[in-house]
Amino acid sequence: MKSSHKNSSDIVIREFCIGDYDALIILWNDAQLEYKPKGRDRRDKIESELERGNAIFLVAEINGKLAGSILGTHDGRKGWINRLAVAPEFRKQGIARRLVSEVEDRLSELGIEIMACLIEDWNTKSMQVFEKLGYKKHSDIIYFTKRKHLDV
Ligand SMILES: CC(C)(COP(=O)(O)OP(=O)(O)OC[C@H]1O[C@@H](n2cnc3c(N)ncnc32)[C@H](O)[C@@H]1OP(=O)(O)O)[C@@H](O)C(=O)NCCC(=O)NCCS
Predict the structure, then answer these.
(1) What spacing in Å lies between the alpha carbon of 4 and ligand 1's midpoint?
(2) Which of 6, 68, 81, 84 could lock onto 117 through a cystine, CB 3.0 to 4.6 A?
(3) Which fold has domain 10-132?
(4) The sheet that has 55-62: what strands, in order across it?
């Protein structure tokens, strides 16, 4: 039976803990989210990121199943939304909206006044979602990075 649900009170938004890691990877694969399994999304890297205390890593849980994830970070100037994913069977029920709103609230409490996210140019669906959530697209900005290695 398909595990869809309609009751938003069944959704628990809670902090990610490292014991969720395997379920998180299943979620990200199901959601076809691009992530860096040999780089910053490796188990030990995430574990140390959590220990540094600068990350707001939340999951949405429905009946014991990881249905969504989000990683909010900040550099003291800007807040960043990373790794937003919702399992296909739980989409379009407002889970991403709730996750983003919770991270925005927590970043706002830290004095962060600008929230940002990076979206691959092919991911028009995600762009539409962020536009619905009040984000403005900046087509005039090109992302530059300098990496220690390609997997990072
Ligand atoms: C993007 C994603 C997280 C959205 O999750 P979701 O829980 O289905 O989103 P929500 O139900 O909270 O929807 C938020 C808003 O976006 C809209 N929306 C959701 N999916 C949409 C779609 N495919 N196309 C257009 N709008 C969409 C909703 O209607 C809602 O707006 P509303 O409240 O005004 O009706 C999910 O589709 C996903 O995991 N995609 C794959 C991974 C990904 O691309 N992540 C983002 C990386 S930048």
Answers:
(1) 16
(2) 81
(3) Aminopeptidase (3.40.630)
(4) 11-15, 55-62, 65-74, 79-86, 115-116
- Mutate which of 92, 98, 130 for ligand 1? The one with the most ligand atoms within 8 Å of its CB, which is 92
Q: Which residues face 72 on adjacent strands?
A: 56, 81
User: From CA 51, how far away is CA 7, in angstroms rounded?
Assistant: 34
Q: Please return the burial class of 84, using the count of CB atoms within 10 Å of its CB with bins 0-12, 13-18 and 19+.
A: buried
Which residues line the pocket of ligand 1, CB cutoff 6 A? 31-33, 84-86, 91-97, 117, 119, 123, 125-126, 128-129, 132
DSSP structure string for 55-93: EEEEEEEETTEEEEEEEEEE-SS-EEEEEEEE-GGG-SS
pTM of the complete model: 0.95
pLDDT digits (tens, 9 = 90+) for 31-90: 999 999 999 999 999 999 999 998 999 999 999 999 999 999 999 999 999 999 999 999
Q: Which atom of ligand 1 is nearest to the CA of 97?
A: 12
Cβ atoms of 62 and 10 within 8 Å: the answer is: yes
Residue length, the chain? Answer: 152
